């Protein structure tokens, strides 16, 4: 099997994301296969592991259509995205933030794909704690964050990300679609919305839908099916009895990770998580 990774400096995520894996990358990379065929990430989010591994063949997907549209625009027209972000940065203030949020929720029907991507990044970088959350109608409803100088634009990082995304498939679709494509020798990494660790700790609002118990059970079945056909499969989730029951029989490693993106301050800091891996 040909080497799966390009040996060059890895770019970094360009958006903040609840459950982002930047602080868990060393643990994930230590458990990833050293070589594989194609790479699949059905819950892309911030894409930290993809950007670190930079696999030659990759299919990156997420149910959040706006997120995937943003990545496509960065990949295909990064200079236009940067130009739009320059304008956002120059106009940023409290009133402007809420005007932009209202325009986003109204659909921005006449905006270009680059303008929509820049607006997505602008709201992500300036909203409260970087928390991308929508209500049941799909409306982004996070208030402005308390930043003196938010990092609205990093042109170099966007160019680097564009290079990493070039030639990679970016699809808005359910996670089960990976079952139609992944085969023996491929690597699939699942980073779903986590199982809640408490009665009110259920952050799953990054899309208008919710990721509940039935979804976690469907995901576990998909994990087992992929492992059974010879894929290398890895999954991150919270360390709960439910997760350990769903993935019984696979290797389950407990790890500690610092979490900063949460709507409540008492749910940030060091938390216990698990990394589940199939046998490879």
Please, could you describe this protein's structure?
This protein has 280 residues and is an alpha/beta fold. It is 36% helix and 15% strand. It has eight helices and seven strands, in the order αβαβααααββαβαββ. The protein has a seven-stranded mixed beta sheet, sandwiched between helices. The longest helix is centred in the N-terminal third of the chain and has 27 residues. It is globular. About 4% of the residues have low confidence.
Structural descriptors:
single chain; 280 residues; alpha/beta; 7-stranded mixed β-sheet; 15% strand; globular
Can you describe this structure in just a few lines?
By secondary structure, this protein is of the alpha/beta class. It has 8 helices and 7 strands, in the order αβαβααααββαβαββ.
Task: Measure the end-to-end span.
Answer: 14 Å
- Main sheet summary: 7 strands, mixed
Strand order of the largest sheet: 3-2-1-4-5-7-6
Give the helix proportion (percent range): 25-40%
Mean pLDDT: 90
Please give the number of β-strands.
7
Shape: globular
Strand content: 5-15%
Structural class: alpha/beta
Uncertain segments of ≥5 residues (pLDDT<50)? Answer: 199-208
* SSE arrangement, N to C: HEHEHHHHEEHEHEE
Radius of gyration: 18 Å
Q: So how many helices?
A: 8
Topology:
Elements: H1 25-31, E1 39-41, H2 48-53, E2 58-62, H3 65-91, H4 94-106, H5 113-126, H6 155-165, E3 169-172, E4 187-190, H7 213-228, E5 232-238, H8 241-246, E6 251-259, E7 269-277
Parallel strand pairs: 1-2, 1-4, 2-3, 4-5
Antiparallel strand pairs: 5-7, 6-7
Helix pairs in contact: 3-5, 3-6, 4-5
């Amino acid at each position: 099997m040909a080497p799966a990774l390009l040996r060059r400096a890895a770019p970094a995520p360009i958006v903040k994301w609840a459950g982002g894996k930047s602080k868990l990358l060393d643990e994930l990379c230590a458990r990833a296969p050293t070589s594989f065929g194609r790479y699949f990430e059905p819950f892309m989010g911030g894409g930290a592991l993809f950007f670190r591994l930079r696999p030659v063949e990759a299919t990156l997907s997420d149910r959040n259509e706006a997120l995937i549209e943003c990545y496509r625009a960065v990949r295909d027209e990064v200079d236009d995205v940067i130009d739009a972000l320059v304008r956002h940065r120059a106009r940023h203030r409290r009133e402007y933030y809420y005007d932009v949020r209202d325009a986003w929720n109204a659909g921005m029907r006449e905006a270009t794909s680059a303008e929509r991507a820049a607006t997505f990044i602008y709201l992500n970088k300036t909203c409260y704690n970087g928390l991308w959350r929508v209500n049941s109608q799909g409306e982004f409803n996070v208030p402005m964050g308390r930043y003196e100088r938010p990092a609205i634009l990093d042109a170099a990082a966007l160019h680097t990300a564009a290079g990493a995304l070039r030639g990679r498939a970016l699809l808005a679709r359910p996670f089960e679609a990976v079952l139609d494509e992944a085969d023996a020798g491929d690597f699939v990494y699942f980073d779903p919305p986590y199982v809640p660790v408490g009665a009110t700790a259920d952050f799953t609002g990054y899309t208008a839908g919710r990721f509940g118990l039935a979804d976690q059970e469907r995901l576990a079945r998909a994990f087992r099916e992929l492992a059974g056909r010879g894929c290398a499969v890895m999954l991150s989730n919270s360390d709960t009895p439910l997760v350990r029951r769903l993935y019984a029989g696979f290797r389950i490693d407990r790890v500690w990770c610092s979490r900063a993106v949460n709507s409540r301050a008492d749910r940030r800091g060091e938390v216990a998580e698990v990394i589940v891996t199939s046998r490879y």
